[in-house]
Write a structure and sequence with these properties.
Blueprint (H helix, E strand, L loop, with lengths): L5 H4 L10 H7 L2 H14 L6 E4 L45 E4 L10 H7 L4 E7 L1 H14 L3 E10 L3 H11 L4 E3 L1 H5 L6
Parallel strand pairs: 1-2, 3-4, 4-5
Helix pairs in contact: 5-6
Length: 190
């Protein structure tokens, strides 16, 4: 569960207002992700949540990054704020770890790989926003670390259809693409 934070997926989030929330809504990403999350819990599949954020004062902030350049100026992605909390529809339960990252990839500078190995995870089922950022990075980095990778396409979105579709085309080269119901069965009932 990648970057399902209010700042990105909620309509009142700073990134949400820049197109992400509209795409999340149009693609029914939160509904599909919530159904996948519920099904994974039912099947006792380990669930790990990843959030992007920076500490007070932004000491981890990459000042030269075009992706994060505006974060400090308008206090985006401040850890402990409403913006970096998981959206209510897909919030973690007590037993589900939350990994904090300070870059695009959830593997960079985090204990994610150690956590996955300790849980004996072989296959990554990825859901998240944005498809062209964290999902793409997780798919590539997961592949390079020897995991099987499956992206749950109906539980992902970018800030536009074009970016989402381009990212899925790239991801398809090293990972499989499916839906929540294809991967986990009994998806969301419409």
């Amino acid at each position: 569960m990648l970057d399902f934070i209010n700042e990105i997926v909620h309509e009142d989030g700073k990134y949400g207002r820049e197109g992400y929330a509209d795409q999340v809504s149009a693609r029914e990403v939160l509904e599909n992700a919530a159904a996948g999350l519920a099904r994974a819990r039912e099947l006792n599949i380990p669930v790990i949540h990843v959030v992007v954020g920076f500490s007070e004062g932004y000491p981890e902030w990459p000042s030269e990054s075009p992706v994060f350049s505006g974060a400090r100026a308008d206090e985006r992605l401040l850890l402990g704020s409403w913006g970096t909390r998981l959206h209510d529809r897909v919030a973690n339960i007590r037993s589900e770890p939350v990994v904090v990252k300070h870059r695009i990839s959830p593997f960079y500078g985090t204990a994610l790989e150690v956590l996955l190995r300790s849980l004996a995870v072989k296959t990554l089922l990825l859901a998240g926003v944005a498809t062209d950022m964290v999902v793409l990075a997780a798919a590539k980095d997961g592949h390079d670390r020897g995991f099987q990778v499956q992206v749950l396409e109906d539980a992902t979105a970018a800030d536009s259809d074009d970016m989402h579709n381009a990212a899925i085309r790239v991801i398809r080269r090293s990972a499989s693409i499916s839906t929540v119901s294809e991967a986990l069965g009994r998806g969301r009932q419409k």
